[in-house]
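User: Hello! My lab partner asked me to get a predicted holo structure for this protein. The small molecule is flavin mononucleotide, SMILES included with the sequence. Please write out the structure tokens.
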Amino acid sequence: MSTAPVAIRRRNLLDRLPHQGYDQAYVEKPMSAIAHLFRQLTHGVYVVGVARGSECNAFTAAWVMQASFDPLLLALAINPRNSSYPLLIASGAFTVNVLHQDQMTLAAHFAQPRCENKLAGIDWSQKRTGAPVLAECLAYFECVVASRCAAGDHEIILGRVLDGSLLNEAIPPLEYRDTGDLDGSSRLFPETF
Ligand SMILES: Cc1cc2nc3c(=O)[nH]c(=O)nc-3n(C[C@H](O)[C@H](O)[C@H](O)COP(=O)(O)O)c2cc1C
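Assistant: Hello! Below are the structure tokens for the protein in complex with flavin mononucleotide.
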């Protein structure tokens, strides 16, 4: 966490983003209040699969949403520091595997930094793009990258959906709010807006 005075930290944040003189309205809140506020947004929990040739990986993600009907587009926010990122960019493809309520352990497993092989011991297969599809997930989507956009400490990837299927519809989707602080995000929010 930065030790710079709040006013300087706020100015640095504003310098990085376009703003139209609204800074006078900024109200300081403790980081925990901002984290709690953002936890009111609803998200599912997914495992995003990537492959570059024979090299495969996957990571847990919550920031996934449908972005268009025609063409069918999914938006994903990915941290470029994830080791999956260069694989996704190189291949131009990824899968979104929807986790169900009994898959908290899988969410925690794929949230680990890349180790020897996170997919070892997991039942998975490859479809058209080679990106991993998890056999036990609720549903999957297979996407090719349509466009990319910088988004602060993440990057928004728009994926055109090539294919997808329901695999285990009986169990409701896992919700991000049920994962608590599994992603450690309570320490990542800024101290002010
Ligand atoms: C519930 C949860 C949601 C997450 N959502 C995202 C996300 O939307 N985007 C992202 O880049 N990382 C997200 N993460 C963090 C990644 O899963 C984590 O950084 C992972 O170690 C990256 O794996 P990799 O380095 O093998 O690619 C999330 C983690 C958890 C536990």
